[in-house]
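>> Question from a student workshop board

For tomorrow's exercise we were told to take the sequence and the ligand below, predict the bound structure, and bring the output to class. My setup keeps failing. Could a helper post the expected result so I can at least see what it should look like? The ligand is zinc ion.
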Amino acid sequence: MIPIFDTHAHLDLEPFSEDFDAVIHRLESGTLPVVSDELPSQPIQMTGVLLPGIDAQSSYRCVELAQRLPIFHAAAAIHPNSVVNATDHDWKIITELAFRDDVVAIGETGLDRYWDDTPIEQQINALLKHINLAVRTAKPIQIHCRDAWDDLLPILRHAVKEQGLTGIIHAFSGEPEQAAECIELGFYLSFAGSVTYRNAKFASLWESAKIVPINRLLVETDSPYMPPHPLRGKLKRNEPILAVMVAQRLAELRGVTLAQIAEATTQNAFQILCANDISQ
Ligand SMILES: [Zn+2]
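>> Workshop helper replied:
Here is what the output should look like for this input. Compare the format with yours to find the bug.
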């Protein structure tokens, strides 16, 4: 069995509303949504799926969904692109959810200069609130960073040193230099479909994926976004079991077996996300 832990899937979003039960069935039975020679042939066993919230309502939905399957785990936060719409009441809900025993992480939060939906000062303010929640609840943080490394890294460095922050950089998109800095800060780096893409503009990301120590490596889908190669453009949306394609790509880049990556990333996910979860 190839064990796969998808550390980032938005199963609460609309693209899953129509056939959620079919997606759950595939998760439980280890069935891929398509048949292709390019997909791994070994049987897959999903060992976990982290459901990150993107706003107060979404975070609440993730907590509810997490009750449906033992392999589901919820995280709560307001996504940097949603911060602009967040009310005081929303923050109150996020704070309450953060302290629940069945919420394993604070995420997704971070900084996004690509979409720029929320002014950067407001994004930074929200990130600092999430960092405080992570520290107060002693839970890991899950960070989204798009084109904002120069803003993000000094904030993380300070929070790690002064407050003991730990966590995950989700859908890592940076250069090897930024990967090295995140590793030095103690973060886990999670790779998504982008690392499977063959376009030369991803070459530095492939290099980043090679330098992460095996005990800090994670895989994710960022479902419903970013379907992995060669399914990109062929599937209408991504789903958690396809994290196996990311694991397969990491194995190829690092010259090891799929089983080695799958076992290590599952173990790492349990380490960072489920260490305090007594039900495991
Ligand atoms: Zn996300």
